Amino acid sequence: MTTSFETVTSADGTPIAFERSGEGAPVVLVGGAFNDRTTVAALAATLATDFTVFAYDRRGRGDSGAGAVYSVEHEVEDLAAVIDHVGGPAAVFGHSSGAVLGLEAAARGVAMTSLAVYEPPYVVDDSRPKPAVDLFDRVRTLIADGDRDAAVELFLVEGTATPAEIIKGMRDAPVWGWFTGLADTLPYDLALCGPGNVLPADRLAKISVPTLVMDGGESDAWMRAGARAVAGTIPGARYVTVEGQDHGVLREPDVLRGLLTEFLR
What we know:
The chain has helices spanning 41-47, 72-85, 97-107, 135-144, 148-159, 164-171, 175-181, 186-193, 201-204, 221-233, 254-264, and strands at residues 3-9, 15-22, 25-30, 51-56, 90-95, 112-118, 211-216, 238-242. It is α/β, with parallel strands linked by helices. The radius of gyration is 17 Å and the shape is globular. The protein has two domains: 3-124 and 198-264, Rossmann fold, CATH 3.40.50.1820; 135-191, no CATH class. The two termini are 20 Å apart.
């Protein structure tokens, strides 16, 4: 499979980098927190036999610029710029906060043929505490103070409800260096999800493109509840549970191939 590296300039002048692979209708992959284009590369390879796949670095990650000022609108413009560059409209797949970005872009009218999202992290029930409304400010302050370890831990504990024993294992593993390396982008993910990760029902109800909402059969209850709520809010959305999977589904991209190939065509 041939992969080419390209860049496009977003509306505010920020360069956005991506890799193109495969042949067929265009599909853009959008990763979540602690992700860049390399972490969706396996899914890109899985889909490249049926589509032209575009895996991009969200701003501040990989080879993309960070821009002078962050806003959700700029992130939506980045995705729109990639889609426009590839001759849009295009199908979009988003994972976690990347799913939120895909939903926000669709609600704002970015040109898509279809949208598939996996576990957008909205908190809609009492199975976990909602993130505090000041979490964005506290994570950003830790990053500004140079304490990237504490910023990552705070994001995981309060933002994703990751148990303390799992975080301890992460700290002792090579992946922790990857997490701290992307700590600067955690406020972006928090801004996308909004204070308290509240489901923006009014915005999502405006989405008119065909939408597939997925969760994992082994995922935390709050993530599954959020996925069901998203599907119930978007007119005509399809909801599917991927049995045997959890939030880390990108590690086993072949389990998504059938669903995405059928839906995104």
